[in-house]
From TrEMBL:
It is a multi-pass membrane protein. Belongs to the sodium:solute symporter (SSF) (TC 2.A.21) family. It comes from the Bacteria. This is Sodium:solute symporter family protein. The keyword Transcription regulation does not apply. The lineage of its organism: Bacteria, Bacillati, Actinomycetota, Actinomycetes, Kitasatosporales. The chain crosses the membrane at residues 6-22, 42-65, 71-93, 123-153, 159-179, 186-210, 230-249, 270-290, 366-383, 395-416, 428-448, 454-474. Its main location: membrane.
Length: 506
């Protein structure tokens, strides 16, 4: 990097902070901070939903998979996400919106207290918060790894820089700042991705390289849809998991649907995000697929291949723009996760831990929300410094194994609890399925040796799903009160009434 690249990067950080400060004017209470007051346009929600779904791990961990296996990286990653979001456009998006517009909640998990009971809400809240600290820690480590390739600064310095900048704008401006910065980040990533694609095509002989390079010896097997450990079984397992995760199972995407004015807007938001997941990763992945023709990675897992390629092919200025693109994805995901976790901690956990929190004023709740965001970011940054330790192994292990494996037991009671078909599943089904899913994760990842990757990933969510449904039929716990909650979430009548105001917990 030279002074021009640094100017682009510093200018980007400055714009992000400015957006956060501008968004601060739109935040009056916790409803504004966590759900944008239900005033977010569907198109902004859709772009925000898309951008908050992936990070610089794509340019490190998945770049390594693309370097080794080719288009498998798309077929077994972004393609199933696009299909999963499309499935959820009608199934989950409108119901998540009604959590806010009908029930008046600010946190995705607030409804669980009435849908199940307090124990279930707390179990899902605490386990989800702990998982997200590890997940976001992996994202910080990914962007710091890229930053170290370009600038030579240490991993910890990179974590500190990106974490502090993200903390400023998302703490000050809440979900509005997240969504608006994600819009800007999408625009930046669009130009950066196109620049990288054009540079690679020029190096390989022009536009025709899109279809002529695949018979080169260096790309042998790169055109196979599934390869290595990423088999058809893995693809189906990943589709199953991502349908829950990217439709709100990890909470930050749920907030995008909750932030739209009504259920119809939430559905349109989901369709837009699905289309973006189907098309845009193709532009980003092609340079990674053909990287063996252009660079020799220094790391065994080839996670540095994309960074090395940008250094080799792009002039200064454009190099800075691509680096900004790396930051944009990571900061989008981490800030959205921070907001979601702060919502759960402030609205669901603190009122149980502290009697004073149950009677917070709007101002006190907003202050608590901001401090919760800061605390989450600090903890995740601390975890990031340990992401390559023997406990976590490497970045891609954390993202694929830990998140995909542990997400299911948390998401199953939360997501399926909104559907009438599972009205018989109550607190017992929710808690047993959650606990058994966590045990299945430990057993397949650490208790037994030689378990295939797809089994490790799918076992926890499959265990939770089977037990949730089975216990619901064997021990039905539906009550008139729980049915009333489901009725509000599932009724498809037009949302003509204004959304109830988000009140302090009490």
């Amino acid at each position: 990097m030279n002074s021009l690249d640094w100017a682009v990067l510093i200018g980007y950080f400055g714009v992000m902070v400015a957006i956060g400060l501008w968004s601060h004017k739109r935040i009056d209470d916790v409803g504004d901070f966590f759900t944008a007051g239900g005033r977010m346009p569907w198109w902004l929600s859709g772009i925000s939903h898309h951008m908050s779904g992936y990070s610089a791990v794509m340019f490190t961990g998945y770049a390594g998979i693309a370097y080794t296996y080719g288009i498998t990286s798309y077929v077994t990653w972004s393609f199933p996400i696009a299909i999963g979001i499309a499935i959820g456009a009608k199934l989950f998006a409108p119901r998540l919106n009604r959590l806010r517009s009908r029930l008046g909640v600010a946190s995705p998990l607030e409804y669980l207290k009435n849908r199940y009971d307090l124990r279930t809400q707390q179990a899902l809240a605490w386990s989800g918060v702990l998982l997200k600290i590890v997940d976001v820690g992996a994202k910080w480590a990914a962007i710091a790894t890229l930053l170290s390739v370009f600038t030579g600064i240490s991993l910890n310095q990179g974590i500190l820089i990106t974490g502090v900048i993200t903390g400023i704008y998302c703490t000050v401006g809440g979900l509005w700042a997240d969504a608006l910065t994600e819009l800007g980040q999408f625009i930046i990533q669009f130009f950066a991705g196109i620049a990288m694609l054009v540079a690679v095509l020029a190096e390989l002989g022009g536009f025709s390289a899109l279809w002529t390079v695949w018979d080169r010896p260096e790309l042998q097997g790169h055109a196979e849809p599934t390869a290595g450990p990423y088999t058809l079984t893995f693809l189906l397992a990943y589709l199953f998991i991502k349908t829950f995760e990217y439709n709100g199972g990890m909470w930050n995407q749920a907030q995008r649907y909750m932030a739209t004015p009504n259920a119809r807007a939430a559905t349109r938001s989901a369709w837009l995000s699905s289309v973006l997941w189907l098309i845009w990763p193709l532009v980003l992945f092609f340079p990674m697929w053909v990287a063996p023709l252009l660079v020799t990675p220094e790391k065994p897992d080839a996670s540095d291949s994309y960074a090395l390629m940008t250094e080799q092919l792009l002039p200064h200025g454009l190099l800075g723009l691509v680096i900004v693109g790396f930051f944009s994805h990571t900061m989008a995901m981490c800030s959205s996760d921070a907001n979601a976790i702060a919502a759960v901690f402030t609205r669901d956990i603190m009122p149980v831990l502290s009697k004073a929190a149950r009677s917070w004023t709007h101002r006190a709740g907003l202050i608590a929300a901001r401090w919760s965001t800061v605390a989450f970011l600090a903890l995740s940054m601390a975890i990031a410094t340990q992401v390559n330790s023997p406990t976590f192994k490497d970045i891609i292990t954390v993202v694929i194994k830990w998140v995909a494996g542990l997400m299911g037991p948390i998401a199953i009671p939360f997501m399926l609890g909104m559907l009438r078909a599972f009205r018989r599943s109550g607190p017992t089904a929710a808690l047993v399925s959650w606990a058994a899913g966590l045990f299945a994760f430990w057993l397949t990842n650490y208790g037994l040796d030689g378990i295939e990757l797809q089994i490790q990933i799918v076992s926890p969510v499959a265990t939770s799903l089977v037990l949730y449904v089975l216990i619901g039929y064997l021990k039905p716990e539906d009550t008139p009160e729980r049915d009333a909650v489901l009725e509000q979430i599932n009724t498809e009548a037009p949302d003509t009434a204004p959304a109830p105001a988000v009140q302090p917990r009490g």
